[in-house]
Specification:
The chain has 10 helices and 20 strands. The chain is α+β, with helices and mostly antiparallel strands. It folds into 3 domains: 4-187, no CATH class; 200-377, Oxidoreductase, molybdopterin-binding domain (Sulfite Oxidase, Chain A, domain 2); 400-506, Immunoglobulin-like (Sandwich), CATH 2.60.40.650. The strands form 4 sheets. Strands 1, 4, 5, 8, 9 and 10 form a 6-stranded mixed beta sheet that branches. Helix 2 crosses helix 4, helix 2 packs across helix 5 and helix 4 (68-93) runs antiparallel to helix 5 (95-115). The longest helix has 36 residues, at 152-187. It binds ligand MTE and molybdenum atom. The site of ligand MTE has 18 residues, from helix 10.
Length: 507
């Protein structure tokens, strides 16, 4: 006689987990076949990020850094499989209850698909319910096998069925991922972009503009080394054929430009330092690149900004938003809709086909990647993405300096040691950098040529190092004569302050 208690409890759990695996696999496969746009697991991840309190999101970014999104995706899959094991046990007794759990998961997936701006809704929802159906069918089948008597024969059959479904799940998911990836790469049109020349460009750095110190940050950050920060789990691959840039809101003549329209406008090319507000003192969430784009002012003059418009809102294809004072487009600073970075069309990670670059403002209030709309409104009428999450609405980049060499804790022989790094104060300009060793005097460092007020400058000194433990500090002064503050504050809510310090051992 077979009773529940005589069953191997691992079988129902395994059946439930593999049924969820099949559901994931079929959702991914259908996502690829139906061209939903992004993986539904990613869509669920986006939903979680949207619903999670800001502190949790920040915590994830801090702990997992660049891997925060892959970790989230892996976590969703793992949680699904664990929940599946529980549902499998339930199914052995009440299949109806297990079915309800699957339907509930399908409902969450559908909500994620509906609210994710990068998902085509109908295919997304069809993929989700296709996965639910496949998962339930798998569970039904395996549950009937589980109920068979504990014999070698039944065990073997269960294992064969289990292994078959597991292999199918992995194959379906992999195929789906490949299809999604291929489709997104093919449709973007990025390879075919021919960049126009700028009507006004800053001279490229000449030999001798940069300081020759081993280990110092390059004068212009290579694109591949440029930091990347955004809320996107999978980088949007915008299709140029359907992409437009709207300029809307408090303007006299709203327009909608195609990428070709944008490229037909006069372009400028400028060096601008971009920094993330989350950059810690001495951190590397800052970079200096050459940006080609249309001045924001030119675009706004075309549409005619109305009296009383005090805020410029930048929206991206994935619904991320920034907001900054409208003044920034007209006060003479560099502010542009950029289409190229260091002479190449924007990489997908950095906002292809177009992004905002506004000198002197932290990225979270200004630098919208995958830009889809520029809206003129009032300062009071709208708070952009990070503002309700506790970050300041006004966010000028603070003057900062960083020691690149020597490294923290490095042991070096006594003698002449180069101490070097970079300093930035966009859009004011860096006027001077000073270095202090232990309690010694502040020593003026040599500076690289100033490419622009928005550029970072390299700095260096030759330090005559005597044996012992030493602490090296750096501070910069902007062109207005303001020296960065020694007060130590964290990145939240509007940028870290304090002097970057490195400890070294001289032997
Ligand atoms: N669409 C979109 N644009 C965005 C963000 C984002 O999350 N989504 N993050 C902003 C932030 S916080 C920063 S610091 C810069 C970083 O630009 P980068 O990744 O090209 O270095 O992009 C900004 N633009
Ligand atoms: Mo940022």
């Amino acid at each position: 006689m077979t009773t529940e208690s005589s069953l191997n409890p691992r079988r129902p759990a395994a059946a439930g987990a593999v049924a969820v695996g099949v559901a994931f696999g079929v959702v991914e496969l259908l996502s690829g076949l139906l061209s939903t746009g992004v993986s539904m697991v990613v869509a669920v991840g986006n939903l979680i990020i949207d619903l999670a309190p800001e502190s949790v999101v920040r915590f994830g970014i801090r702990i997992f850094g660049f891997y925060d999104k892959p970790v989230l995706v892996a976590g969703i899959v793992a949680a699904g499989l664990v929940a599946g094991a529980a549902v499998g046990r339930l199914a052995a007794r009440h299949f109806g209850a297990a079915a309800v759990a699957f339907v509930a998961a399908g409902a969450i997936g559908s909500i994620a698909a509906m609210q994710d701006p990068l998902v085509s809704r109908v295919p997304g929802v069809v993929a989700v319910w296709g996965g639910v159906a496949a998962g339930l069918a798998t569970l039904r089948f395996l549950t009937s096998r589980v109920a068979a008597v504990e014999q070698d024969e039944s065990r073997r059959r269960f294992l064969v069925a289990f292994g078959g479904f597991a292999a199918f799940a992995v194959l379906a998911a992999t195929t789906g991922r490949l299809l999604v990836g291929r489709m997104r790469a093919a449709v973007s049109g990025r390879e075919d972009v021919i960049l126009p020349g700028p009507s006004s460009a800053q001279a490229l750095p000449a030999q001798g503009d940069a300081l020759a110190v081993e280990g110092i940050s390059e004068l212009v950050t290579p694109t591949a080394d440029f930091y990347r920060i955004d809320t996107a789990i999978s980088v949007p691959r915008v299709d140029l054929d359907s992409w437009t840039l709207k300029i809307s809101g408090m303007v006299d003549r709203p327009i909608e430009l195609t990428f070709d329209d944008l490229l037909d406008l006069p372009m400028v090319e400028r060096f601008v330092t971009l920094s993330c507000v989350s950059n810690r003192v001495g951190g590397n969430l800052v970079g200096h690149a050459r940006w080609l784009g249309v001045p924001l002012r030119d675009l706004l003059d075309r549409v005619g900004v109305q009296e009383g418009a005090t805020q410029i809102v930048g929206r991206s294809v994935d619904d991320f938003t920034v907001g900054f004072p409208a003044e920034a487009a007209f006060d003479g600073r560099q502010a542009m809709v950029a289409v190229a970075m260091n002479g190449e069309p924007l990489p997908f990670e950095h906002g292809f086909p177009a992004r905002l670059v506004v000198a002197g403002l932290y990225g979270y209030v200004s630098a919208t990647k995958w830009l889809s709309e520029i809206e003129l409104t009032t300062w009071e009428a709208f708070d952009a993405y990070w503002i309700p999450r506790g970050w300041s609405k006004e966010a000028p980049i603070k003057t900062q300096s960083r020691i690149d060499v020597p490294r923290q804790g490095e042991r070096l022989p006594a003698g002449t040691i180069p101490v070097a790094g970079v300093a930035w104060a966009p859009d004011r300009g860096v006027a001077g950098v000073e270095v202090q060793v232990d309690d010694g005097p502040w020593i003026q460092a040599e500076l690289s040529t100033e490419l622009s007020k928005d550029s970072w400058r390299q700095w260096a000194i030759d330090w005559e190092a005597a044996p012992g433990d030493h602490s090296i500090k750096v501070r910069a002064t902007d062109a207005g004569g303001d020296t960065q503050t020694s007060d130590i504050t964290p990145p939240a809510p509007n940028g870290a302050t304090g002097y970057h310090t490195r400890d070294v051992v001289i032997t």
